[in-house]
Amino acid sequence: MTSTVNTTRTASTLRLATAVGAVVTLGGYQSRVVDQCYRLPIVARMNDQALYTADSFVRAFDTFNPHWGYGWLLNSLSAIIGLSAALFGLYVATLALTLASLWRIRRAFAPALPPWSDWLVVAVFVLCRAGNIGTNHLWEDHLLDRQIGYALLWFALAEWLGGERRRAWSIPLAIGLTAIAHPGLGVLAAALWAGVFIAGLAIGETHKRETIRFIVILALAMVPWAVAYLPQSKVLAEGVDPAFFWSLATELQGPQHMRPVHWRESQWWAAFAILAAGLCGLALNRREFDRAAVIRASLWAVPIVFGLALATVLVEIAHSLPVAMAQPFRLATPLRGLCLILLIPHLTGLIRFGGVTGAARAGALILCLRGDRSFEAAVAVELALIGSSWIFCQFTNLERKPGYDLAALAIAGILASWWLIRNDTADGEVLLIGGYLTGAAFALIVPRIGPRIEMRFSSGPTGDRNARAWRICAYAWAIPLASAIAGTADPAGDSSICRTLAGRWRIQEIPTSDVERLAVAAREILPADALVLAPPRDKAFRHWSRRSVVVNVAGSPYQAKALADWAERLRIVAGEPADLADFARHWPENRVAWETHYEKAPATQLDAWATRFGATAIVTRDTLAEEDSLRSRGWGIAARQGSWSLWSTRSEVMARSGRTR
After folding, report:
1. Residues of the chain predicted below pLDDT 70
2. Radius of gyration from C-alpha coordinates of the chain
3. pLDDT tens for each residue of 227-259
4. Which of 374, 473, 510, 633 is most exposed, with the fewest beta carbons within 10 Å of its own?
5. Is the torsion defined by CA of 77, 78, 82, 85 positive or negative?
């Protein structure tokens, strides 16, 4: 008996390892990109206060740092295994916890589905980019603190839906850890789950003793959060008028995170399409669902829906700054994920019983998750086919042949593709048609080769089957491990193989773009206390150079006074519009023009900005037409990579020239 349990556990672990490897291989992995480029300097300064001494953005986190838990975790692991291994190891662990929890949620909902339906769960979560209100994707190809928090909350939801007896303490512990890694998400989760357990009393889903135990353990689990973050919160709003702070935070700093009014129309419609798809999957396959799990899910989902509606009113009508700063719309992300899991039984049924047409429909629904408009079209086609099928069955006694379904799909697909051609700038018709063709090809190929593959992997002694499973897992991890080895052997990224692998699977610190290579050169050229005037749209230079930067659009502090200083710097390099308050209010509609103003600025303007901020280096593109003008003002080119140039004061260039002779 023990041997059977151990074998099953090993097989499950191996299956999970294979799934994680497949996601990393097919989806890619990146480090030191996007949001990491603004978080990692904060983490580095936590470990060494001598870094970024001239960078007002990074120094602002000395007094208010909501990334403290994330930074402490990274610094602790980096001290043992290095930053690259810490980032990759945490990413893999987070992905494994997420997939394991999602599979548990799927089994809690529909335990009778075949095991291969778990791979549909993986596919929809990795591919989904549609309906992204609140700008938090279900999954991304690099480690972020919010991904760690979401993974812990998926674990909590799996505990709840599975009716686990330990949920009164396992869920609070997951929330407490979330609050350390990502305090905003942790506080939202604590409020949500307290409401879930209290509401459960009314319908008998929880009992009084369990609820009291949950609240007590939750309060204890939140103590580390209170100790680490509450003392910092006193300085959050200091130094700026509340109305001005509202404008800076919700219009300039993060309008896409905090203000529903700034979300695109296509995002709204895609979010509603995901909700409709989930509810449709639940209604059409209600016999497949476990009733108790659906009730528990409703207890969890309904407060989120009402909470998001209330938050929209408080933010957009009452202009409540505390609600906006809490960013409650982050909870739309797990709600969207739950709807996709509710869709899994419908997708499984289409593939199993729908023939070529059904598989094509499933393929389109899955692949079209890559875009807002494309998923809207795929859901519209699916609802039209479901409706026409119901009408046909209700009002006719004719036998519906497969050809009728194929004709209906062709007509609906052509109409949807024509609508996408006219309304979607992201070529959503390619996703829609590609999804139909992929699903159809799957339905035609699998019946021919599937039985042979299944026989090959199910036949033979247990040892042979285990060896095959281990080989598949090794294949799933082969390319990422090859990239890690290549990066270790060639840390400068000189070889074409290393650069090619790092372009898709960057595990080690290998620069892959011109600006990253220029920043690495600046690390060697510029003194540690240098301040660099760089294009505000660039996210990479600050981290890769380990040098201070005047201002960056993506990197903005949270504390009010520091935020005002950041906004003033951004206003200046955006062309100095007349008033900072007007600049903040009009940022959403003028963002592109103001972000790119730096790249069009003449040399005289760049020199004036550098003098004003005390910058000792300037980063420019080769589009700068007045290089001689910069030279005449005492600047010289210290390094050049592709279309990027690093200018330093002539005295520093001459000093470096003397050192290298």
Report:
1. 1-10, 135, 397-400, 402, 450-465, 623-627, 650-661
2. 27
3. 999 998 888 888 888 888 888 888 888 777 888
4. 633
5. positive
